[in-house]
Amino acid sequence: MAHADLNLVRTFVLLYETRSVTLTAQRLFVTQPSVSYALSRLREQFDDRLFVRGRNGMEPTVTARQLYPALRDGLQQLEATLASGRDFDPASCTRRFRLALTDLGEMSLLPRILPRLHAEAPGMELEVVALEIDRASDWLASGKVNAVICSRPLNAADVDRRALFEDRYVCLSDPQALGGEPLDLARFSAGRHVVVASASGHDLADEVMRRDGIERKVSLEIPHFSVLPQILQGSDLLAILPAQIASDFAARTPLVVSELPFPVPPFDVTLYYQAGATSAPAQRWFCESIIAAIGDHEA
């Protein structure tokens, strides 16, 4: 691809990752006809259709699948090199950063992170992407997000990490759910439970229960933690959630926090980002600002 310019490589990589002309145009801040024209030039250079319309969008051909790894890696290295040679001034930054969070992160972490980012870079934009834990590593690899904050370890080889703080799991309930008695294993197993979908990544306690043969009755499954205070008040339901947000909920409602009647190891809430990405000044500033914002609160 000796005569291809950088914009053609960007177009190819984004088309491969998004399978969509529309999304590629949005990510490149160009029109859809511009992406179609770039694709026609790519097809001419490689003498291959590269992408064909299918049931799931623009499906890559065999040639495109062979080209993608080398073009993706080369693009990442080149963009990092170009970025490292430029000065970065947060005060004049207008770019958009994308951060994947659970709704717990939105409630407890975003109010700490956003003021620091906007104090240093008032013109920057932050897009919060709802975390889907099984897709988080792919999002980082493809550049869909700049960073992910989650509690489940991401073990992909091309991902760097920084632990932000330690937390643990507890039980939250209305006082009447326990009748004034301590939460023991018998009451836990006999009680009715509300659980949050595993896409949030908060399933360590479930893994421990499966391992130890601890059973419970799940009466309600919901996608988000944020509605738990409204659901639990006046009900007999029990919920497992991180201690930090459970304490916040209990401070604002009549709900009570109980220790789990079986041991669950503590966990790290961790910031993940693409390996080597912090060589780019803007990405380094973004990650360091998040670390500092959380660290100031935890200190």
UniProtKB/TrEMBL annotation:
Sorted UniProt keywords: DNA-binding, Transcription, Transcription regulation
Domain HTH lysR-type: from-to ranges: 1-61
GO molecular function: DNA binding; DNA-binding transcription factor activity
Keyword DNA-binding: yes
InterPro entries reported in the protein's UniProt record: LysR-type_TF, LysR_HTH_N, LysR_subst-bd, WH-like_DNA-bd_sf, WH_DNA-bd_sf
Family label: Belongs to the LysR transcriptional regulatory family.
Protein name: LysR family transcriptional regulator
